[in-house]
Write a structure and sequence with these properties.
The chain has about 220 residues and is of the alpha/beta class. It has a domain at about 1-115 and about 180-220: P-loop containing nucleotide triphosphate hydrolases (Rossmann fold, 3-Layer(aba) Sandwich), CATH 3.40.50.300. Helix content is about 50%, strand content about 15%. The protein is built from 9 helices and 8 strands. It has helices spanning about 15-25, 30-40, 45-55, 60-70, 90-100, 115-125, 165-180, 180-190, 200-220; strands spanning about 1-5, 30, 80-85, 110-115, 125-130, 135-140, 160, 195. Strands 2-3-1-4-8 form a 5-stranded parallel β-sheet, with helices on both faces. β5 and β6 form a beta hairpin. α2 (about 30-40) packs across α3, α4 runs parallel beside α5 (about 90-100) and α6 (about 115-125) crosses α7. The two termini are about 15 Å apart. The mean pLDDT is about 95.
Length: about 220
């Protein structure tokens, strides 16, 4: 299957992408991973992207598109893939369509993870990270530490990252609504969108997604 995963920040896209890709036996292609890999290996695209980032500028769509194209042409993606973070806007969605069509391929589904905005803010703004080890993550609502402000694992100080503040989260949501959400309508016109609730336990959401993808596949 060839799937695009869409949803607001805090919807759990990265977590669901990993589970779904494993269940479907297809590679999980994340924009963040693509950038890190290209930059760390000093590829031509990586150098180009880094030059924009170092100057404090957004990386142009054509660079992101070229990275995605290169990754989708790798042998492990021949049987399908799950895209996470790409396309991020309608221009990128149009470019993806052109790429696939030129190779005689098409998308099978666009999985839209739906989460109420207040829940997104609650999920992200409630996160607290250990200063000693960023892998130790707690939450004011869902995973409270035994002692406020102290990591259960190592006793380190727990803090809120700047980009997890409520104001920042709401700004990120505005960007999502303006730039990324329009691709849902774009793909609805192609009858590709499968929308599910991303509320509940991780495994519940994964099963919900698998069931919805199967129903969508059965309709074709």
């Amino acid at each position: 299957m060839r799937i695009v995963l869409v949803g607001p920040p805090g919807a759990g896209k990265g977590t669901q992408a990993a589970y779904l890709a494993k269940n479907l036996s297809i590679p999980h292609i994340s924009t963040g991973d693509l950038f890190r890999a290209n930059i760390s290996h000093s590829t031509e695209l990586g150098k180009l992207a880094k030059s924009y980032m170092d100057a404090g500028n957004l990386v142009p769509d054509e660079v992101t598109i070229a990275m995605a194209k290169d990754r989708m042409e790798q042998p492990d993606a021949e049987g399908g893939f799950l895209l996470d973070g790409f396309p991020r806007n309608v221009s990128q969605a149009e470019a993806l369509d052109e790429m696939l069509q030129s190779g005689g391929m098409k998308l099978d589904a666009v999985l839209d993870l739906e989460v109420p905005e207040d829940e997104v803010v609650r999920r992200i703004a409630g996160r607290r990270i250990c200063r000693n080890d960023s892998a130790h993550v707690f939450h004011e609502t869902y995973k409270r530490p035994k002692q406020d402000g102290v990591c259960d694992e190592c006793g380190g100080e727990l803090y809120q990252r700047d980009d997890d503040s409520e104001d920042t989260v709401r700004k990120r949501l505005e960007v999502y609504h303006t730039q990324t959400e329009p691709i849902i309508d774009y793909y609805k016109a192609q009858d590709l969108v499968v929308t599910i609730s991303a509320l509940g336990k991780v495994e519940e959401v994964t099963q919900r997604a698998m069931d919805a993808l199967k129903r969508g596949d059965d309709r074709k």
